[in-house]
Amino acid sequence: MAGKNKNAKKKAALLATGTVAQNRRARHDYSIEETVECGIVLAGTEVKSLRSGTVSLSDAFAAPKDGELWLQNVHIGEYPNAHQKMQHKPKRDRKLLVKRKELDRLSGLVRRDGMSLIPMSLYFNDRGICKLSLGLAKGKKSVDKRESIKERDWKKKQGRLMRELG
Question: What does the CA dihedral 82, 86, 90, 94 come to, rounded to 10 degrees?
Answer without folding.
Answer: -130
